[in-house]
Fold this protein.
Amino acid sequence: MAPRLVALDVAGGSDFVEQLQAIWSAGNAAFPVDQRLPAAAKQQTCVAMRVGEAVQPGDALVIATSGSTGAPKGVVLTHDAVAASAEMTSRRLGVSTADHWLACLPLSHVGGLSVVTRALHTGTGLSVLPQFDAASVDASTATLVSLVAATLPRIDSTRFRTIVLGGSSPPAAPPPNAVTTYGMTETGSGVVYDGVPLDDVDVDIGADREIRLRAPMLLRCYRDGANPVGDDGWFRTGDLGTWTDGDRLHVEGRQGDLIISGGENIWPEAVEELIATHPDVSDVMVHGIDDADWGQAVQAVVVPVADRRPDLESIRSHVKQSAPAFMAPRRLVVAVSLPRTALGKLQRGAAVRTQTPAPATPAPPSIT
């Protein structure tokens, strides 16, 4: 019988690992289903990923992208790609038989699933939680864990030998045992650790500043058959970056996220880092909106601390203490929460639930 895609609709735990291995043993590929979805949404996702239909021999996984820039795509990863990712990441982290991995991120996303596949391929000890739970993480005897920035303040980070940080932008001052990673579903997990590419990973930054990757852990194709990898083996990430200190990759952000206001290039992440330190702000998202005078204007969407309500001038003054005036937002929206993916990435194009009233306060037409 030809290999096919099998839905792995199981919560995290030993049963998940056993069923994944059984799917592989039968020569099939697995599609981990997001356990947070209601039944109808699970069914729709399985239809979109063509569960039950044929895959190519050697295909191991189909993983849905996070959908941070649009509808999720099904990324097809082969056993060879999974093995390459496991070997290169384990080598960089110095993983030994004495280590033990803890998987506590959603297994429907590559950040969580790659912990499982890495441990299985290398024969490393493995514990799998059904979801992130701070008490369970702190009670674990694991030496290695993969987390996102939002989970760090909730655990005792000192108890792990190494913390692999992915998903969203790292904190300004990560703990000394943390390794920040850059990668995506299409790369089978992180391929750049603390700015340095893994072995066998080539990184190129073109004249347009777009990051291109060439590596053995790249996807074979998307589930619809489209192949984003060029004939030359390079994958265009859609991210822009630069080299710092000569040999370390600095990721500036998504190509479509760049704000050009009055001829100035403004990266949302840089503004978000500044606004996040405002005492009245709990969470923040920055994006560009159309503006008749400036082409685009910087808009900040903030979630306030407790019952506080930050105002635009306070936010602008705070930003201008550390950055040029053109980076200060000209519009402010106060929201209840921000749209994020399961791994903490901001979904800049998604709808925001605002507080009542929901002001989008304009700044005065001034360049200061």
Observations:
- The chain has two domains: 5-253, 258-362.
- The first strand starts at residue 5 and ends at 8.
